[in-house]
Amino acid sequence: MTTGVGVSDCCLSGKLQSGTPTGREETIGGLSTYVAEPQGDSKAKSIVFITDIFGWRFPNVRLLADNYAKAGFYCYVPDFHNGDSLPLDFLQNVEPPLKKQEELTLVEKTKNAAIVPATLGPWLITHREGVTRPMIDGFVNTVRTIPGTNKIGAIGFCWGGRYAILQAHGSQPSESGSSVGGVDAAYACHPSLVAIPGDFEPITKPLSLALGEKDSLLDDTARGGIQDVLAKKTDVPHEIRIYAQQIHGFSLRGDWSTDNDKKAMDDAEKQGIEWFDRYLS
Questions:
Q1: Helices (H), 146-174
Q2: In whole angstroms, what is the distance from residue 97 CA to residue 95 CA?
Q3: Which of 55, 167, 168, 218 could cysteine-pair with 154, CB 3.0–4.6 Å?
């Protein structure tokens, strides 16, 4: 039986990071895209970033793409929301980082619990799989046609984490009979809305997962279910790292002002870079 794991107010938590992204914006495959290039501009190891609900303009994801570019990857951050990402104000107005959660009053918690479904429900319907997955498949196909491209990875966060997992299913036949989508390796950070075991059984490409120990969307039971499915896939490289005391969104929206959260973010970044170094080379 396949079970789904949803989205909670944790998906809206986090902090806006300081720093100035150094990449550029251009249109690729019909989508507005942030591009971060490595030294030498090699496209041999390309990565498609599938963002969380805050989208391609979120400074945190652009800064992270810049870091991956410094590590030798050609990075694309497309607008898979078609200009309809949720506003960054939610980072401050909805669930705070873990260290502040205990300070919330019952009234504040109740208010947050009401805001989340009212905001996310309609958005998730608009950006359902039937709309989003073909867009991502098409973008991956476009990147494969760009001269100099060799292997492609997908990295996804929260809402985008599930789509990185789906890209690890490999290319799929389209209605016309051609192959669409599918990457050479994927990395999913605290994915939401995943179906267990349904999203994991079809995996054919190397998959790395970064999960938070305190993630309200992937509890011990859900993580155990994922581990059970992947353990049977002895022919497919995979790994799962669980980060102590980390909530949903930690790898992209953690609190850099605390040593523990900063280390978790740094380690999650290192996890992805090492994974792609191994499987996109």
A1: 159-167
A2: 7
A3: 167
